[in-house]
Design a protein that fits this description.
Blueprint (H helix, E strand, L loop, with lengths): L1 E7 L7 E2 L5 H4 L4 H5 L2 E4 L2 E4 H4 E6 L7 E6 L5 E2 L9 E5 L14 E4 L15 E4 L22 E4 L15 E4 L12 E7 L12 E6 L10 E9 L2 E8 L7 E5 L1
Parallel strand pairs: 1-6, 2-7, 6-8, 8-9, 9-10, 10-11, 11-12, 12-13, 13-14, 14-17
Antiparallel strand pairs: 1-5, 2-3, 3-4, 15-16, 16-17
Length: 252
């Protein structure tokens, strides 16, 4: 096992693009090699060593590499982007695009995550112990698919457009979700423990389960009575009928 501990050297106020913070990039490298990796702070190129202290223990491939991020990472973007294995533990808040395009491994955020968390994710697991921002598990602008595989769990709530253009995988939000979860979905599963509004518009496939209240229902679903899932009875809908969709929406 290789463990890499990273701490900010000072308060970071300008957004940093740090896709190099990943088990795949750090695996088998020394402290000096990691510190020399580049990052962008705003429009200025810098290095990880300029921004963070780095401590390396052991040496291992990516699958056996663990990153521990201690301190305030709320202005650090793209952590774990494209990772294929290993572990990342973020002991606090994190900026946008955490876990974007990841195919394997596990990321745990012990705080809040900003927008686009798990963007276009294909595998692995992302756990957010706080709240998530907009476009959780979604596709970025112009992408036909958002999340394709893997699993995202948010212990708190999420803002609008969770699972936008989702094509596979699973998103669970224990709290409330904002507007239009599951917009234009073509697969996958979304489970919302609390309340939401206008779920599943333009969906063609996939499943959305709402355990709280739907504050506004889009008039594009066909009611199909009730159905029990795991011992709970839900009202069942199929749609979006305007898009000839076969998506399933269950509302408790």
């Amino acid at each position: 096992m290789q463990t890499v501990t990273i701490k900010p050297r000072k308060e970071i106020r300008i957004s940093v693009e740090a896709e190099n913070i990943s088990p795949d990039r750090f695996a088998g490298k020394t402290e000096k090699e990691i510190q020399s990796m580049e990052a962008w702070m705003g429009n200025q190129k810098t290095t990880l060593g300029e921004l963070f202290s780095v401590k390396v223990e052991g040496q291992a491939p990516a699958a056996d590499t663990k990153l521990v991020l201690e301190g305030d990472f709320s202005r650090i973007k793209r952590i774990g982007e494209g990772m294929t294995g290993g572990l990342i533990m973020i002991k606090g808040n994190v900026d946008m695009h955490v876990g974007a395009k990841m195919t394997g491994g596990k990321i745990t955020v012990m705080g809040n995550a900003d927008s686009w968390a798990g963007r276009e994710m294909k595998g692995g697991e992302l756990i957010i112990e706080g709240n998530a921002g907009y476009y959780l598990g979604a596709g970025y602008r112009g992408e036909t698919c958002g999340m394709r595989g893997g699993k995202i769990t948010v212990m708190g709530s999420a803002l609008d457009y969770a699972g936008d253009h989702m094509c596979g995988g699973e998103i669970t939000v224990k709290g409330n979700a904002g507007l239009l979860p599951g917009l234009s979905n073509n697969g996958g599963k979304i489970v919302i423990g609390g309340n939401t509004s206008m779920p599943g518009s333009e969906m063609s496939k996939g499943t959305i389960i709402i355990n709280g209240t739907v504050e506004e229902m889009m008039p594009v679903f066909k009611p199909e009575g009730t159905e029990a899932l795991d011992g709970v009875t839900y009202r069942k809908y199929v749609g979006d009928v305007i898009a000839n969709g076969k998506g399933l929406l269950y509302v408790k």
